[in-house]
Write a structure and sequence with these properties.
It contains 19 helices and twelve strands. By secondary structure, the protein is α/β, with parallel strands linked by helices. The chain has an eight-stranded mixed β-sheet, sandwiched between helices. A four-stranded antiparallel β-sheet has the order 2-3-1-4. Strand 2 and strand 3 form a beta hairpin. The longest helix is centred in the middle third of the chain and has 26 residues. The radius of gyration is 41 Å and the shape is rod-shaped. It starts with a helix and ends in a 10-residue tail after the last helix.
Amino acid sequence: MNAIVRAARRNVVVIVALAVLGAAVAALAAMAATPAYSSTARVYVSVGAAGSSAAELAQARSYGAQVIASYAEVATTDVVLGPALERAGIDLDAGAARAKVSAATATDSLMLELTATAADPITAAALANAVAASFETVVEDELEARASPGATTVRVVTAQPALVPTQPASPDPPLWVALGALAGAAAGVAVAVARTALDTRLRSADEIGEVVDAPRLGEIVHSDDAARFPAMVAARPHSAVAEGFRALRTNVSFLPAEGGGRAVAVTSAIPGEGKSTVAANLASAVAETGMRVALVDADLRKPTVADRFGIEGGVGLSDVLAGRLPLSEAMQPWGETPLFLLPAGALPPNPAELLGSHAMGLVADELRAVFDVVVFDAPPLLAVTDAAVLARGLTGALLVVRTTHARRAQVADAIASLAAADARLLGVVVNGMPSTGVAATAYGTYYGRSTPVDAAR
């Protein structure tokens, strides 16, 4: 049931559109339908007995109650309809008339309702009255003819003749429109459930939690402004985005520090989930507390740190790993906080081998000895093996998952690739959360309209 409710919420536009379409189709059908008029004649079946004692009267009434249901069936037989059609002068055979005539009785009642339907209101009334008259003749003269003077007598009395109707019985436009809207809404719910079943994209933090068996370290709301600034925590310090990264910073501070500072690889399953944005803002958020932080661009295929922060990126990590210059000369300070940047440098032909090399382990150890926190911006896990081999030599990896972007199988495969490399998954960062609605983060709700983080990469 909860899955159906979630599917309906996500596809409310589709459901409403199909409900409106169903109502419109029903309205057009009602306008195009041929009106049908119904008229009802009510007859009363009176049962009498030869005597007048209470017991005899009760017995007669009991007899009437037993046979009234059979009378309802008799009313639509050829023996009644044939003479009725002839009496009313209606050019129909008994078989066709049977579809236009119905008989009904109420519980514990000797009243019988004979209803006739026709395209013409006068014809409907004439047919109902003719059937009532014919029914009276058949019952009294044939079915219940007295065999002896003392037998039970049955009389059929027309209690209320059929009147010429002034309004058609069908179509009923309001009812048709309501049923059309209901059918359309039901179709919309079916479409919503089908779309949800076929669409395996992870749309909320809860759905991501169902796939990732790791702590949820942060929830970052969506914004189109993230690409304009190196770090939102510095450019928009009072925004919901900044608070989201500060919450992530707090959770990262509880991670174990082995052999010096904490060294984490920030990665994702596929491109476009915002791992570079998360890495840059996490490093900036930690640096504003006064801790020494290093942001390392370990994406040796599509680096972004140099362009994002506006620094020289000609030399960097690849040059240090190749032994062309020491680490201290490749590091670049940025801003007024103790944040240092290590760009990717020249793009090598063998990124995975470099990141998994002994030299990379030495660089990571040197960084951890100098800095309190080291953040590596690593490539996506499913695209290449770089992030998995890198994370194996660090404290672990943070997996960034952008809502409505990655699919269940992709995230599961990314986690499996970390496990295969014997790398530790420290937790998940949910990116691209809506700032309003049922899936909004706590910060987005508190701050209202905020400036969230985009997942450009």
